[in-house]
Structure formats: structure tokens, C-alpha cells
Specification:
Layout: E1 3-11, H1 17-25, E2 43-49, E3 52-58, H2 68-82, E4 86-92, H3 93-96, H4 103-121, E5 127-131, H5 138-151, E6 157-159, H6 168-178, H7 196-211, E7 221-229, E8 235-243, H8 246-253, H9 258-275, E9 279-287, H10 295-301
Helix pairs in contact: 7-9
Amino acid sequence: MTRAGFVAIIGAPNAGKSTLTNRLVGAKVSIVTHKVQTTRTRVRGLAVHNNAQLVFVDTPGIFAPKRRLDRAMVEAAWGGAGDADVIVLLVDAAAYRDKEKGGQASRSAEDVARIIKGLKEGGRKAVLALNKIDLIKPETLLRIVEDLNGQFSFEEVFMISAEKGSGVKDLADYLSAHVPEGPWLYPEDQIADVSMRLLAAEITREKLTLRLHDELPYALTVETETWKELKDGSVRIEQVVYVQRKGQKALVLGKNGKTIKEVGSEARKEMMDSFGRKVHLFLFVKVRENWGDDPERYRELGLEFPS
């Protein structure tokens, strides 16, 4: 008997959700950076494990939202959890470890507590996956698990390193046994259900996020405006990078256009690897001051526009 179901991976920003999703899928379907709040929409990655098809929903980080885009991202994350057959709460053990010291660790613990409160209020079950265990002493890990188990009755607890892969197979074994029995939901060779247009835009945004500093990555968005199939099997992709101010446009372009050229080169190479074909990529940078309040931009990202 085959099984198939949706698995939502939720957690605080920068817990490693995208890294875990890519690890479980066995391919890169969600962008990964060292900056928090990189994932903006729900990304579904597909994997077959132990005769079960697992549909992993990589959600934006759940945190205390301040901007309209923040609210849309948090709503998308809870929406992904609401539709799931199994919920995995991923906790960055390294960030959670020293919560009494304040700073980022304290904020991470606050975000986790907020998520647990939401799970309780929704009457949802969840499993706990403690991530980045390779950075933590065993006795500290046990203390963290004891702390979290005191806040919520988890169905199961897993110790993993999403980056290195340790413990991930045990998690996959559990998930494949706990999704419903039934036929597979997607073709066996499909690894994601996001459109190629959106995936291409996310690849470019990842390269921009890795290269730019401070708050600029959060003030821009990337859209694939045209996708043209060419006779030789290659594809011509035109994308627009929207920023909110003229000064930001200059930073994205770089001196003599150096930054945007390098970003385009890196993005094009990854697209060719991902799509298995030659890619002709053209990037344009435009100022759109209030793109964060434009409903059309949210539709492009697959997000609901919050009122």
C-alpha cells in the first residue's frame, strides 16, 4: 500500500527549514541564505521514501510581524501548517541554547514559544526536530529538549543536522509511516510544484540576498516578466528587480553595473543546472517605492494580500 501526504516544516526565521527541505527532497527546491526571513512563500518539494510520497511545505519563518509583507509571510506559514498531515517544528538548537543571554538567541526562543502557543490554540499535533546538533554539547541538547517538552507534548523528537544530514533519515522514516495511505499525488519524477518562473525569480533573489548587505535584501523583490522558449531548446528569461528607493537601485547595480552582472552570471549558472538547459538571462532594476503595498506583487509570490 502506498502512502502520500503533506508535511509542513515550520519554525523561527533562520532555523534551517529550507536546508532541511532541500535535504529531504535530495535537490534544491528552496533558496538558502544566512540571512533570516529569506523564504517568503510556501515552497513544496516532493520526495519518495519507503513507498510514500512526501510533499514537503517549506514555509516562511514565523515571527512577530511588523510590515504588511511580514504579516503575509506569517499567514502563509500558518496556512501551510493548517493544510498538513504532519507538522515538523524545526528549532535551531544553536540559537535556542543561550536564550538567557538575550539578543538573537532570546528572539529565537520567543519565536518558538509563539509558535508553540499557535499550535496549542489550533489543537494541532507536531513532531520536534532539533537542528544544528553538531554545534551543541549532548548535555545541552538534553536540557533544550526538556525545556521544549515542558512547553508542548510532541509526538516524537528528532536530533538532526539538516546541513550535514545526520538524523534526517530517521525523520524521513517517521514521516513516511505517518502520512495517510493512498495514491501518490504527483508524478514520481517531479521534485517540486512551484512554477519554473517563480523558481527562476527565487534563484536570482537568493544571489542578490547573499551579495547585498544590511536591510537591502528585504527591500527588494524579483519577478520573471518573460519566459520565452527558443527553437534550440534554450530559454530566454527576463526578470525585473524591484527596489523601493533610487539609492537602493545604485547599490543593486554596483559600480559600472558590476554587482548586477555578477548576480546575473551566478543566477544563470544555477538555473542551467536546475532546468537542465541553456539559459539566456536578462536582469533589469527598477524603482517601485510601494511595492510592499501592491497586491499584484503578493500574487506573484503566491501570498494573500493582508488588509
